[in-house]
Design brief:
- By secondary structure, this protein is mainly alpha-helical.
- It has 13 helices and two strands, in the order H-H-H-E-E-H-H-H-H-H-H-H-H-H-H.
- Strands 1-2 form a two-stranded antiparallel ribbon.
């Protein structure tokens, strides 16, 4: 009897499709479905059909259950929120009698999810301007490229695929994520000149605060840094745009005690993935990477510190760090204390 073939590990895009199928089985009430997300305007609504939207007189109830867009209120001004304002609120009655408890301060909402804006990938794909199609085969499917990947104009297509990586609905998400990995794999020297154009799509995806989108983009960033020489160093000037979201979620780890995390093969633990990504950025970012990461994320520790390895800060290019070490109050040895006392 022939030995069974080892199963091929699923790609990142195929893993997202399997997770969606699992989510449908777990949440059968539809609370985690695309329909519910569209109803709450958390993902783009899309078109009524493949030919566009229906006329209003023929489909008056189309998107009738979707929330209407409203003016956003500032989370930092509690006086603008009804019921939670603390300005001009008296909680002490006559003679000092208590009249109730003051309402708690409103939540800052730093980790709350933002609506996912429509991507350029969705617009180009609906218009038929992308040389790709879904090849329906094994689990997850593949991409059928109409043109050789190495012959594509990376300045035009790679930012579009990066922009589509924040999509949550298929086939946009599958094609964008899988296409991004394949373009990075076969890009070679074409990827480095396009790095400045990738910053805005990366920042937009991270600012959605959606854990699934953030994990997907973190894996893409790791692949981007490892796809060619000097790409990690080219990302260093853009740490101020990328790393603020890292600082918010870097401690977002799951405390399971002594249990086993069977989901770790999917690499969806946000805290661990951020720490892994920071180490990749530091290792491939040159001598200035550590000091720039430390500036944006003060609690970050160097991945490796010995001489001649990554992680050691460049003293010539980091005068602020050198000055802070010079003015540090070091402890005085006991022998020196006795001499000063005498």
């Amino acid at each position: 009897m022939a030995a069974p073939r080892p199963s091929k590990p699923s790609t990142a895009a195929a893993t997202l499709i399997l997770d969606d199928a699992l989510m449908k089985m777990v949440y059968r009430d539809g609370s985690k479905s695309y329909k519910e997300a569209k109803k709450n305007r958390m993902i783009p609504l899309g078109n009524h059909s493949s030919f566009g939207d229906f006329p209003r007189d023929l489909a008056p109830e189309a998107w009738g259950t979707v929330k209407v867009k409203s003016l956003t209120k500032s989370r930092s001004a509690p006086g603008l929120t009804s019921g939670t304002g603390t300005m001009h609120a008296a909680f002490v009655g006559l003679g000092g009698a208590p009249r109730g408890l003051a309402p708690p301060p409103p939540k800052a909402g730093a980790t709350s999810q933002r609506p996912v804006p429509p991507s350029e990938f969705r617009r180009f794909y609906d218009r038929g301007d992308l040389p790709i199609a879904v090849f329906h085969g094994a689990v997850g499917g593949k991409i059928a490229w109409k043109v050789d990947v190495d012959k594509l104009d990376y300045h035009h297509y790679l930012p579009i695929f990066f922009d589509g990586a924040r999509e949550q609905e298929d086939p946009y998400r599958f094609l964008a994520v899988q296409g991004t990995y394949e373009m990075l794999e076969k890009g070679g020297q074409k990827v480095l000149p396009v790095v400045p154009q990738l910053i805005i799509p990366i920042k937009t995806a991270l600012n959605t605060r959606n854990p699934i989108i953030i994990c997907t983009m973190l894996k893409i960033i790791q692949t981007l840094v490892k796809s060619g020489d000097m790409i990690g160093e080219a990302l260093v000037p853009y740490y101020r745009q990328i790393l603020p979201v890292f600082n918010i979620f870097k401690n977002n780890n799951t405390n399971i005690g002594d249990k086993i995390d069977y989901n770790q093969r999917k690499r969806m633990n946000l805290g661990e993935l951020i720490a892994e990504t920071l180490e990749v950025l530091e290792t491939h970012g040159g001598e200035d990477a550590f000091i720039n990461i430390k500036y944006m994320i003060p609690t970050y520790g160097a991945a490796s510190w010995p001489d001649g390895q990554a992680g050691r800060p460049s003293w010539s290019t980091s005068p602020c760090l050198l000055a802070s070490l010079c003015f540090t109050a070091w402890p005085i040895p006991p022998s020196r204390r006795s001499e000063d006392a005498a």
